[in-house]
Amino acid sequence: MxxxxxxxxxxxxxxxIKCDPNYWYPVGWSHELKRGKTIGTRYAGxxxxxxxxQEGEVFALEDRCAHRQVPLSKGRVEGxxxxxxxxxxxxxxxxxxxxxPYLGKxxxxxxxxxxxxxxxxxxxxxxxxxxxxxxxxxxxxxxRAEDPEYKTxxxxxxxxxxxxxMHENLMDMxxxxxxxxxxxxxxxxxxxxxxxxxxxEARYSFARTDGKQPWGETIIFGQRRDNSAKYAHRDVMTIRxxxxxxxxxxxxxGAPPVMDLWIVYVPQDEAQLTCRVFGLLSxxxxxxxxxxxxxxxxxxxxxxxxxxxxxxxVELEQQAWRELGGDHNQEVFPVINMLRDLLRRxxxxxxxxxx
Amino acid sequence: MxxxxxxxxxxxxxxxIKCDPNYWYPVGWSHELKRGKTIGTRYAGxxxxxxxxQEGEVFALEDRCAHRQVPLSKGRVEGxxxxxxxxxxxxxxxxxxxxxPYLGKxxxxxxxxxxxxxxxxxxxxxxxxxxxxxxxxxxxxxxRAEDPEYKTxxxxxxxxxxxxxMHENLMDMxxxxxxxxxxxxxxxxxxxxxxxxxxxEARYSFARTDGKQPWGETIIFGQRRDNSAKYAHRDVMTIRxxxxxxxxxxxxxGAPPVMDLWIVYVPQDEAQLTCRVFGLLSxxxxxxxxxxxxxxxxxxxxxxxxxxxxxxxVELEQQAWRELGGDHNQEVFPVINMLRDLLRRxxxxxxxxxx
Amino acid sequence: MxxxxxxxxxxxxxxxIKCDPNYWYPVGWSHELKRGKTIGTRYAGxxxxxxxxQEGEVFALEDRCAHRQVPLSKGRVEGxxxxxxxxxxxxxxxxxxxxxPYLGKxxxxxxxxxxxxxxxxxxxxxxxxxxxxxxxxxxxxxxRAEDPEYKTxxxxxxxxxxxxxMHENLMDMxxxxxxxxxxxxxxxxxxxxxxxxxxxEARYSFARTDGKQPWGETIIFGQRRDNSAKYAHRDVMTIRxxxxxxxxxxxxxGAPPVMDLWIVYVPQDEAQLTCRVFGLLSxxxxxxxxxxxxxxxxxxxxxxxxxxxxxxxVELEQQAWRELGGDHNQEVFPVINMLRDLLRRxxxxxxxxxx
Lengths: 355, 355, 355
What we know:
Chains A, B, C: Residues 24-126 form the Rieske domain. 3 copies of one chain form a homotrimer. By secondary structure, chain A is of the alpha+beta class. Helices cover 19% and strands 32% of the residues of chain A. The first copy, chain A, has 2 domains: 35-116, 3-layer Sandwich (Rieske Iron-sulfur Protein), CATH 2.102.10.10; 150-346, Alpha-Beta Complex (Naphthalene 1,2-dioxygenase Alpha Subunit, Chain A, domain 1). In chain A, strand 3 (46-52) and strand 4 form a beta hairpin. The first copy, chain A, is globular and about 80 Å long. The two termini of chain A are 15 Å apart.
């Protein structure tokens, strides 16, 4: 199995499927990149220098000087160009080498690759695939991140697993079992699913069967709830993978969601067995002004604890995959199999060597 | 040599020989595993969950949930079953999956492998080979570990080497040279050996040629000795590999041993180039009650120092093996060559790929 | 490219070229090795034990006991021999095994390899190639290291890169750009080069275009200088690779150099992608006695900062090489291409496997 990348169910091993690069992927937060500075980031093993010139938009270059392949992100921003820190070779927005300090202008060497780049909602996106397709592929909608009715938490971290584990983790709400210490006993009820060529959606409701409502949840719902039947199965949680992004919304009685999460898992290494998470978690503001601000630190701590449990378990899944040399997932929940098919269908299968 | 696993002497490379799994191997200490708990351990790359239910005997399962291969040892013990921490799949003593909380009982998925498991003398043993053979293979005799005439130290640690280096280290008492700082100058005399299909035994006596008797030794012998001829070559040290275990006994004039060690080196990783040591070191109680208890901390410190020197050197042997890509041991001591043959004969040679 | 070791320019990949072992390479500092002691060192993956007996010259043995391949440098020096720490096998200056304490003298086993060894200028050199050539290959001249007119700093450290990156770094003075923070803006002028079968030389002068003269430079030149034309391009810096060593000299108006550096980069691992630097930096003593001693700590700190910047950048080059699977250097400076040809020509190309 490790050899041909196929898993026991005859499909290509999901953990070997690469993300389709012909989408917009965030690779940095706007606040990380000051005017006149450059930072280094990655997409699937490709080093990328993000440059914010003194004037104008952010741009993205291959993060390797054409001369000696050292990171341009260690260099200096001068006007609309970036100078390599080593011998001072300079590159403009187009990636062209525009100056070698000790060489005549007539014979400038080749430059470096550029990436289409956009900045929106506090995120810096690049398009790592075919640049000719970038204009025709829309940026994702970032849910409520810019809606004044909501307060949004921007969060991110690195997780040592293939992005598919993250999609499966979030969509399979039976894993509430794992968060019992944080959330109390919650019985999920699967309400149904929806499927489209590049989308899978699952809907759930919940009933608390034991334990008190945690404070984090109180903040999200804006109300204190007991375990009575009154609240059981009242809210609908809708989790959707719209390739390659994922969202989770909680709504009550058809009202606008009390919580709206947009999240994406950007491959870091070439094998795509590690990812960087970019998440936007929007909470609907309650009528009482300032209440959400006051409660915010508790919400942050609550979601952090949940996320840490999720990260630990997906990293254990990835570790088992490494040890076993392939995916042995024995899935019994149909919507997760639909999701797995979607990720296989929309991703890029590894190229096999001829025998 | 690295390619075909054969060493310069034409034999299969001893450091590539795997332990025969059709023996009982300890994988944990009884005191590590509380009632109603589970812990994760390993045999030769196989993760094993040891479970001590609220009632009844310890049992041992493959430490990977059938669903997503995460460790069952991270889960919860409920009655006589263990629930996976992630989605709550439950497994009984037989390894069968007995519950998936969100699935009808009619269509339960496959379970996990179990290991025959026994608990004796403070050790938890599993039988990693063919389970049908377990009943006919006896548990090892643990020397004086349960004899009230003796006080037993239970010790263990991980050593980064193939188990064969450990057997050779203990049996070749010419390595007393290395412990000179701890023990003073001791001249070993080889008294002879014994050999059977699954056993090799070497016998030695010693004479102190320089330095004082260390306190640790005084405790073991229960008497203070000078370097006079009176004590030279009086005690017989018998070291025996009874596959896959090893023992070392020191006796004076045919009396019951003053020291009796039972020890085994359990492979940890799949290549078996690391091992976990489980040792039972029994010291005969002196007539003076309480004396051994008082001296115990000194004995512990003394044996720890000796063991640390042994560990450092076998890890250097293993490192040289890695760098050289194979075993270059040039052995001149016949009993060690007998031992090497035994470990090859009783172990499992690596399967070679057809050319 | 990673496969056949050839780079994009059709040459063998420079970073896969091994150092020619038929030269004298330093592997230790004299002060590291006390009388009656032994230390372990390396050349290109070969472990070497340097032994300084109670009397007579240092000698160098393969640092693996013939018995069990553990380092002899962990052993004890006895007269003119070294005893392995494990079972006491002893080896003389010739590498022959001269004693196994528990074996008759008639049947002593094979010994270990020796290396021709010389000690000069505070350095211990070995000749890792064909020992028959050692006598005919001269030790390098160590510049001013033993000249009382100069004070010499001996420095060394490990750098995680192929030695060729170090040669290129020092010879391409356009990398002054990188040291701008330490040195101020210095415009280099290339004055010309010289080339011989085993030598490449580059000459430069400099003009300060901005910033103050750093104190370190003041110490080297023995005078305070402003940025006026008076000092521009007055000094000549001569950098030479005389295979496998490198030197850098600064002279003013044909006077003896104010600074004279001898340096070599000794491969550590078998792939030669890490090296240990041995450098002798000699500064001409000013007329005012004691002034250089007073200023010395500042000079040390200054050169350390420069060296740290150099080390960081060559390690980034090496890291890019690993990620790209080969050398993508796009060199535009002719003398560096001459240097690269020299290192390829004088070094040892990797042996290719037949297809």
